Amino acid sequence: MDHQVVVLFHLLCAILFVGAVAMEVLILEPVRKLIGDEVFQRVEFYLFRRIRRTYPLAVIPLYITGFYMYFGYVENSGGFESFISTSFGMLLTAKMTMALGLLTIFATSPFVFMQPRSRSAVGHLKHFLIVTGGPEDFRIDRFELMHYLALGFGLGIVLLAKLMFML
Ligand code: HEM
């Protein structure tokens, strides 16, 4: 596939992913003070569940296109050693590492944000895929830290993505 088409697809998915995190931090967090914790917990639970159920459609292609391009660059440089010795290779690898950190937050979020429940192996898988439980199980005490961390990663990734072409 043409490289520019892959980049376009990568960017569209990146906007959707980081945009959702930015919306949570910049819009939802300030609204919390106006609506109170009880309503916030309900709203945030349903929002979180919706994001967790639909966003794999953007997140999976984002990482597939990313790794596809990454290994393409490694191959064109004649191997990982010569690739990582360039500033482009180093910054792209740092970007990939940060992106894996963000993916870890997204992947583990059903277990980070929801009260622990005793579940079978199938129950855990179901919870991982579609988020089970109700609004009362949602941990709003972890909302700020995890979302600020995620937004920090998202902004860092985008900055590195541009810096790697400039330095
Ligand atoms: C949250 C995750 C990610 C975000 C927000 C993101 C964002 C971006 C952005 C904004 C660009 C700049 C595109 C341009 O200016 O043309 C870019 C390029 C790129 N990204 Fe990602 N990315 C993410 C994950 C990944 C991952 C996991 C990899 C794999 C290692 C990756 C590999 C690349 C590559 C190779 C380019 C250069 C594309 C080119 O040749 O123009 N990205 N990314």
TrEMBL record:
InterPro entries, per the entry: DUF474 (IPR007418)
Keyword annotations of the record: Membrane, Transmembrane, Transmembrane helix
Domain of life of the organism encoding this protein: Bacteria
TM region(s), chain numbering: 6-28, 55-73, 93-113, 145-165
Name used for this protein in its record: Copper resistance protein D domain-containing protein
Species for this entry: Thauera phenylacetica B4P
